[in-house]
Every structure is written in structure tokens, then in C-alpha cells.
Amino acid sequence: MVRLPCALLFILAVAVATPFLPLVEVPAAKAAATGTVRGRVEFQRDQAPAERRPQVADIGMPGRRDVPDQRVAVVYLESAPRGAFEDRAGPTVVLDQKNENFVPHILAITVGTSVEFLNSDRTYHNVFSLSKANSFDLGRYPPGRAKAVRFDHPGIVRVFCEIHSHMNAFILVFAHRHFAVTGPQGEFRIDGVPPGAYTVSVWHPTFTAKSESVRVPEQGGEVEVTFVLS
Amino acid sequence: MIRSTAVLVFLLADVALPAGSARGEDAGGREPKRITFGAEAVASIATDDPGYFNDTSYGRSAMRLARLRLDVALRLGGRASILAEGRADNGEGVTVAALYLRLRPFPERSFDIQAGRIPPVFGAVARRTYGVDNPLIGTPLVYQYLTSLRSNSLPASADDLLVMRGRGWRTRYTIGSTAWDRGLPVIAGDRWDTGVEVRIGREPVSVTAALTQGTLSDPVVHDDNDGKQLSGRVEVRPALGLVLGASLSRGEYISREAGRVLTAAPPGESYRQEAAGFDLEYSRGYWLLRSETVVSRWDIPQVQRPLLTDRLGSWGTFIEARYKIRPGLYTAARGDHVGFSRISGTLYGGLPTTWDAPVSRAEVGAGYSFRRNLLLKIAVQRNWRTGVAFGARESVAGAQVLFWF
Predict the structure, then answer these.
(1) How far apart are CA B365 and CA B333, in angstroms?
(2) What is the pTM of this model?
(3) In Å, how far is A25's CA from the nearest CA of chain B?
(4) Which residue of A1, B41, B146, B263 is most buried, as measured by CB atoms within 10 A?
């Protein structure tokens, strides 16, 4: 129930706004002076990881698996400078599958990035997504192999395994490069932000999204923001 | 005429109390208590099935089923769980389809014990309980089709049995209950037996064995004949994506109601269902292939002439394939047959005749997932019953919506 507003906010902010560039005019001569938006995301309560459906028809206890860290969020600029959208040549990143768990659980990439879904488990996996912007189904493939998908449209891509219903991951595809995934202590850092006024937002799969307004001064420097998710 | 079976609304949940905060979940003894829920709602519509090819042992058509089910797992640490499944089919009230205790006495070893109303160890289909595990709407014949044999009403002669060929949906005999009722499937895929089972090993080899009250064709909650069924299965995974299983079972199937009438039976005589099965599953890429063969035979008393001199045999086999066409869309097909052994009476010119009418089915269909947990299936099946005048062949078309959490 909480995810829908987050997803809508994200899509509105990133996907829908993209055609209306420039959102923030940054004179080319001043582009060299950039700032940093940094801070922390604090969680006021724990989130339970996705549980297996009760396997009533199984005989015996289910096998060992890992569960993802739920205290990870993505912080991003809702409005980004023009130049940020021109950097479309995304690299290839790896989303691994280990112990029936996607690693990382949340991945943030730019449009044009290819994601290699590596199978590091001892069993088949079948990665798929029915997200409208980037649907795919990689079929069943064995350990040690990877299959790649290029993400050409901004939005939130929910990723699942057809064989293991508890496995899920989120891929946030941004039209610009001004975003960061939080670290172990909730810290984040978005570098290379040109001077200007921005709205900084935080996204989490289950918490309600939050936004703050910041201004990166003309001379650059660091701007600090703290988000508290409750 | 297409008849709607139900409209579904279901309260769905999948929660954990309290949340496990660990990064690793294991089967050891460090897990906190927690309860998880899973729910599924299924609604099916289908054209008429006047030959009752899809009727199940519960008296419902597998093609016209509206089912709400709630699965619950209460984990009592890492060594024990209580699992239960409640169902409400076609608005006929709630039944407890499963309720058992699962124990792992040695947390680091793959040795499990389950006791209560437990999942069957025989074969593979009966443990595919979630609707998404079935790519089509119909159930394989060997797990669903009603033969003319019953556990509480027995034919006195070969002619009694031959008269009921192809009438498994409504049959009766002279020994035991004389009321009209449904016959037995070879395996009752949607009913679970009551007893104790153990599993040793997991991959690549596991062995399971169960001691239960009923039989494959007639699972029961309360023992109805003082006999027990012993069943077992060996599962081997020799390669990735390949699962091979071999199963055996043996149990007394004639109920006390019919058995007490068998005055001619010598003391200690028992009438058993014995079955052997082989199943296979292979998957790779966008393909999933499954097949299963089951051979079963039932002891039958010899009461009147013409005598039923041999045990009644049946064999059933199916092969099923699913192919994913694009994300969210797949197509599937299944070929299915159940055959029966021959007996001789005075009917059919005294020639050896199968004691029930052999039945075949071809079913093709497709599924489309609107969301990960919202699936629409459509399927068309053609059914054949050999050597009967009524309900010899028919086609059934259906659609099913499935929603789960």
C-alpha cells in the first residue's frame, strides 16, 4: 500500500519530467564549480524482509537462504541540470543471485545501463520483470552464467525469480546521474552537482518517499540533508 | 453455456511477526518464532462437461472451481513449525486441507518429520498445490478422473463392475453402501492423507516415506478400515533442471462398511491398493517439461459368478510442456491417458473388456500475467472415453483467474 505513492512520485519526478528540460539552467562556463549533496537516511523502525510463502506442500524444512538488508534507500535529485541527462552511456553492472537472494537488493542505474544477472547459486534461477517500462524474462539458466538486460527507460523495475517466489529486487533507472544508494550507516553522497536549487528525494520500497529543497552555492561545496523514514 | 462459478474477493496478507532482522535465515535453531501467511484466490469458468471428465473426488469440476485458500506457517524456532491450509471451494464452507507439525530434530541435518494431515509423498503433482504451479486449468487424469471403483461399495461380480464402466461420477454396487456416489480416482490429488512422514536428504538425493490412514485413491482423516498405507519416494536430481522421482505405495482401501459384508473373506484377508509411479521434470531456458506414469492395482473380493478373478489394474500417464513466449505470456499443453486392465463377464459378449472405460485428454492453453501475482489462464481440452455409449467424447473450454500473495 505504501509503495504506490513512492513509485508514482518517482516516475513523475524522473520519467515524466525528462522531456521538459532544461529544468535548471547551468551556464556552461560555471559548470566546473560543482557541489556535493550529502547526508544520511535514518530509519525509525525495522522493515521485515520478504518472507517465503508458506510451503505447506513441501516435505521438510526449507533450505538455507539469505535475506536482503532492508535499510537501504536511494537518494536522488528530482530536478537535475541539463548536462546530467546527456550522460547516457551507462556501464555494465552486475546484479548477483546468491543463496536465493538478489545482491544488491536495490540497484540504481542510469538509462542505457546494462545489468548482468549473474547466477552464483547452486540452482537454476529465472529472473524476470513485468514492469511496464522494462519487462524481460531471462528464462532458467544455470550457476556460473549471467544474462544481461539493457534498461532504456527510466522508472522502477521490480525484479523477481520465477522459481523462488521470495526473491525480489528493485532497479531504479534514472534519466540522469545525480543519485546515490545509501551505505551501511544510511549515508549518501551525490557529487558533481552544479550550483542551483534542487529538490532532493529519498526512495525506499516500503517507506513513504520524502523530499527536501537544497541549494548548491555558486562556489560549490557541500550541502547536507538528513531524511528520517518512519 | 458458459457458467460462472464465483466472484472472488479475498483478504491477502504476507507478514512476519516479529520481523527477522538477521541477514541470514537458516534452518538452525536460532530463528525466532514467526508466523507467515500466504493466500490464493482462484476463479474458473468453463463450458459444460456433461461427461463429468473433470469431476474430482470432492464432487467439483476442476474446470469450474472457485477457491479461496489461506496457508499459514507458524515457525516455532528453527526445529519446529506448524503448517495449515484452509480452503473454501465454491462457497461451500471452509475445510482444513492440511494441518501438521513439521520437526527437524537435528537442525544441521536434512532429516525432517511431519505428522498430521500431511502432503503426499507419492508422485509430484499432488504437491503442486499453488495454482501457478499448474500451467493449465485441468488436472492430470490420474490425479483426478473418477473410476467406477469405490471403497465403501463393491461389485459382487464382474458383470456388476462392467455395468458401471465409464460412470465414475455416479456409481454403486451391491456390497456395502448401495447409495449412489462418486468413484475413486487412481490418486486423489486434491485430498491429503493423515499420518506421519519422514524425509532424509535434500539434494541431489532425497528419500521420503509415509505411514498414513488412507490410500492414494482414498485419503482419510480418520481410519476407516484398521489398515494403514505405506508409501515412499526417492527423488534424484542428477543434473541441473532435471528431477527424477520413483514412488511406491501399498494400503488397504476397502472401508469397514463394505468389508464387514464380505463374510466369505477369510480372516485376516485384506484388500489393498498398490501403486508404483515414475515422474520427471526437466527445465531449461523458456521450457518446462513434466511427465508422470502411475501403475495401480486394487485387490477385489470374489463373491459371485462371473468372478473377478484378477486384481483390477490401471495405468495412467501424462506429459506436459510449458513454453514462455515473452515476459508474462506462456503457452502449455498436456497429453493424458488412463487405461484399465481387462476382465471377463457375461456382458460384452463374454469377451475380455477393460473394467472401466479408458479415457484420454488433450489440453492446450496459455497464461498471461498482468502482474506477478495476477494470472489469467485459458485452456481448451478434448476428452475421449472409449467403449461407452454416453459421454464418449467432448470438448471443454475454460478460463481461470488466479491471484495470490
Answers:
(1) 6
(2) 0.86
(3) 40
(4) B146
